[in-house]
Write a structure and sequence with these properties.
Layout (H helix, E strand, L loop, with lengths): L2 E6 L6 H12 L3 E3 H11 L2 H11 L6 H12 L7 E5 L5 H10 L3 E7 L2 H10 L2 E2 L8 H4 L14 E2 L6 H14 L2 H6 L5 E5 L4 H20 L1
Parallel strand pairs: 1-3, 1-4, 2-3, 4-7
Antiparallel strand pairs: 5-6
Length: 218
């Protein structure tokens, strides 16, 4: 059975970082909603043209279109052994559609208190040139800091200001938290303490995935 993993968690919880680590550990692709949308647009498929039209109007991509994009992505050969999904599903309607697309889902939620998320995101800096997220220790150097990847200038994203971060978290609670209620009773769901170091979170996730894969095979 394919190893299909869903990463849940609020903005700033570290989903992208942990998804990439899981993908490397298990040899499966990690894909985010943003990646899938960009790939579809670049491929110029019918779905891609629909996405491009929506985005050019400045509208949000609806559930039906997102589900179609994910369905198309999961049909690619590189997902035959599994996939790590970051940013999908975001609604219970999307989750129900995913259940029909992928068997044996393992769902991991990285739990971090709001105050810590505000601290992380409001102190986060990205490279203005290449878009890389700076290591927190580097970002803390202030004006003397430079991107470790390309040497570019580190800046704060407009949506990482504290008041915007708190609004993003409010939206998450209203729209995405119901996913936890959708998945919580499943034996393949596990909440992970995101207050640990990045390495400790990765180790905890790997233990849970290994445990659930073993249980599934018995």
């Amino acid at each position: 059975m394919a190893l299909n993993i869903v990463m849940l968690g609020p903005p700033g919880a570290g989903k992208g970082t942990q998804a990439a680590r899981l993908a490397q550990r298990y040899g499966i692709p990690a894909v985010s909603t943003g990646d899938m949308l960009r790939d579809a647009v670049q491929a110029g498929t019918e779905l891609g043209r629909r996405v491009k039209a929506v985005m050019e109007r400045g509208d949000l991509v609806g559930d039906d279109l997102i589900v179609d994009i994910v369905r198309e992505r999961l049909r690619r050969a590189d997902t035959a052994e599994g996939v790590v999904l970051d940013g999908f599903p975001r609604t219970t309607a999307q989750a129900a559609a995913l259940d029909a697309m992928a068997d044996g889902l393992i769902v991991l939620d990285i739990a971090v208190p709001d105050d810590e998320l505000v601290r992380r995101l409001s102190s986060r800096r990205i490279c203005r040139d290449c878009g890389a997220i700076a290591d927190p220790a580097v970002a803390a150097r202030g004006d003397a800091a430079a991107c470790a990847r390309c040497g570019g200038t580190l800046v704060q994203r407009s949506d990482d200001h504290e008041d915007v971060v708190r609004e993003r978290l409010k939206v998450y609670q209203q729209r995405t938290r119901p996913l936890l209620d959708y998945y919580r009773q499943r034996p393949s769901f596990q909440s992970i303490d995101g207050l640990q170091s990045t390495d400790a979170v990765a180790e905890a996730i790997a233990r849970e995935v290994d445990r659930m894969v073993t249980a599934r095979r018995q």
